[in-house]
Specification:
globular, 15 helices, four-stranded mixed β-sheet
């Protein structure tokens, strides 16, 4: 490893330490505001509920610190020590060619996932269990792992073979063809995933006739939203967290409610949550996210083209000049770059959430939306008092206190 390689490793450590700093800020800020419910929520959230949410947030921050440090250690360990021995081992059993590169990439991901598995187990069966969220059994967890691995291999292996084949056959244009194919795949997955993949993990049943469906259909018609159906997902078999989303394009668009929402929310609140999701549709946020992804992925494939065509990464880290090895090395060194992009992407996401909130307010008023946000916050043990700097950096959704304040200001301005 030369000086540049060492510098990149130092940048990975620096990025990890900065993330740890933000997590420590979050834990300290939440702890400092643990003893008092914010005045805007004093009539809706009890002190013991506020304190329990604070304890959960602090526990997640501490767990995040461990995850961050382990991730940085693994990244540096792979770059400085283990990539070359792994490639040498695979070279002894696989002849030079596409298969060697593909087997290397698959082996890396399998080993990395195995090393990170204890963290996933702790998160599910200790942290989430402690705060009453986990409903997942160990057999269900194991089956999900097997299904996820099988799907990843089924999709990933042909994709790797295709990319490396194009690299060998069309050395100047492979990256552009790969980029176009990848973006087509991403867009098509918005239809394929809810129709074929998601049902492998959860059961989706159509919303039954009744008052809720009548209100939902009425709102859909009012917003001019044509969907392929409204479904309830059995999220409660794994967690008590509540959520809702819509996915797909054209006639394949579908709206999905977690069944946990129906356990705790009123009809007015469910309707307002739906209106918020429809706000994302009306404001074109899905297409904006695809465009954003297209730009980021384009830069990623352009970087792959440059590094595949030179031996600069090989000289930086002393790794073999194999497309599979270079592909993994680039994934490992992206964290410092991601750190700079995170606050910008988070800001853009929060802006979209404000727009969706305002759409829901225009459709149904602000009271039901405020009630739903408060209940979601309370039931999911989200902190009402996050650290402002941490939230500005990482939160894809604005803090609930800010969302409620904005809804009231918008309503008062009418």
């Amino acid at each position: 490893m030369n000086l540049i390689g060492m510098t990149i490793c130092i940048m990975i450590v620096a990025a990890a330490l900065f993330s740890v700093y933000l997590l420590l800020r979050q834990a300290a800020y939440v702890a400092a505001h643990r003893q008092e419910v914010p005045i805007d929520f004093a009539s809706q959230v009890r002190l013991d509920e506020h304190q329990r949410a604070a304890d959960y947030t602090i526990a997640r921050a501490h767990f995040g610190i461990i995850e961050t440090l382990i991730s940085a250690i693994l990244s540096i360990g792979w770059l400085a020590i283990f990539l070359s021995p792994l490639y040498a081992f695979i070279s002894q059993i696989i002849d030079p060619g596409l298969s060697r590169s593909v087997v290397f990439v698959v082996s890396f991901f399998l080993l990395t996932h195995f090393l990170e598995l204890p963290l996933s187990l702790y998160n599910t069966f200790s942290l989430e269990e402690k705060f009453g969220f986990n409903r997942q059994s160990l057999p269900t967890f194991a089956i999900d792992e097997v299904k996820t691995a099988a799907i990843s291999l089924l999709i990933g292996v042909p994709a790797l073979y295709g990319m490396f084949f194009l690299f060998k056959t069309f050395p100047q244009t492979w990256w552009l063809v790969s980029y176009v194919v990848f973006m087509i795949f991403i867009v098509s997955m918005s239809v394929v995933y809810p129709t074929f993949i998601a049902p492998l993990f959860n059961t989706f049943r159509p919303l039954e006739d009744g008052m809720i469906k009548s209100r939902v259909v009425g709102l859909l018609n009012k917003c001019g939203f044509q969907s392929g159906g409204v479904f309830i997902m059995d999220a409660s078999k794994r967690s008590t967290h509540g959520n809702a989303y819509f996915t797909g394009f054209g006639k394949s668009k579908r709206i999905v409610f977690f069944d946990t929402l129906f356990e705790k929310h009123s009809i007015d609140e469910i309707e307002s949550i739906l209106a918020h999701e429809l706000g994302h549709f009306k404001h074109g946020h899905v297409f904006q996210m695809i465009l954003q992804s297209a730009i980021v992925v384009f830069i990623g494939f352009l970087s792959l083209y440059w590094f595949f065509s030179t031996d600069i990464l090989t000289s930086w880290f002393g790794i073999p000049h194999d497309p599979g090895v270079i592909f993994i090395a680039l994934l490992l060194v992206k964290e410092p770059i991601s750190l700079f992009l995170t606050p910008l992407l988070s800001w853009r996401s929060r802006r979209a959430e404000y727009e969706a909130d305002d759409f829901a307010r225009q459709m149904l008023g602000c009271d039901a939306m405020i009630s739903a946000l408060t209940r979601l916050t309370r039931d999911n043990l989200a902190s009402l008092t996050p650290d402002p700097f941490y939230a500005a950096f990482y939160f894809s959704h604005p803090p609930v206190s800010q969302r409620v304040r904005q809804l009231r200001l918008s309503q008062a301005a009418i």
